[in-house]
Design a protein that fits this description.
204 residues; alpha+beta; 7-stranded antiparallel beta sheet; 4 helices; 6-stranded mixed beta sheet
Length: 204
């Protein structure tokens, strides 16, 4: 009986070890990227929450910093039409700004809601290529496609920041260096795919 108990205990420890190793490998394979949207309102600049309020006079810019080399897709929707704004393979730890340089998206303001999705994947997503063959799709088509991506992603987890970032206070991101962006922005995690949505309620 003692021998049997020892063998059983050994098997349990061995199984736990392999489970730990398997989880560690899968954790390494998860998709990670820092993702943020800057809102420029008059002379103030601040980081958007997952759902936020903006006006038709505000401007927006997307910032993505992948942990490793990733295919980055950016989708915009006014809840009638969806548009693929970008598909680009972005090197790990590089800073992608959309639009580039000192440019911003001007809020349309013709609809009460506007939204952006950032999708990150280690490999190209065939469904995205097919769904946006003309770089546009109906919002309903995009929602169905996004639902499948959420299933693959399985997470929308933000890692704990080393120091807090102001969500409502003014932030001069135009003056922030790439190193500061890498230090301050939230890192989000997905399993095989990472999908992050920002929804904006638009006031006139």
């Amino acid at each position: 009986m003692k021998t049997t108990k020892l063998v059983s205990a050994g098997l349990i420890v061995l199984a736990a070890f392999f489970l730990f190793v398997e989880n560690a490998v899968s954790d390494d394979d998860r998709v990670r990227a820092k993702i943020a949207i800057e809102i420029r309102s008059d002379d103030d600049s601040f980081w958007a929450r997952a759902r936020d309020n903006i006006t038709a006079q505000d401007k927006l810019r997307i910032v993505v910093i992948p942990r490793s080399d990733l295919h980055v897709y950016v989708i915009y929707s006014n809840y009638e039409k969806a548009q693929l704004l970008l598909h680009e393979k972005v090197p790990g730890e590089s800073v992608l700004k959309l639009p580039a340089g000192d440019n911003f998206f001007q809020v349309d303001g013709s609809k009460p809601q506007e939204a952006f999705w950032v999708v990150c994947s280690p490999a190209p997503l065939e469904d995205m290529e097919k769904g946006f063959s003309g770089r546009q799709a109906s919002h309903d088509q995009w929602e169905k496609l996004a639902a499948g991506l959420y299933e693959k992603g399985g997470m929308d987890i933000a890692e704990k920041m080393k120091k807090p970032i102001s969500m409502a206070g003014a932030v001069r991101s135009m003056d922030m260096s790439e190193d500061q962006l890498k230090e301050d922005l939230l890192t989000f995690t997905g399993q095989t795919v990472l999908i992050k949505r920002f929804v904006f309620d638009v006031a006139e």
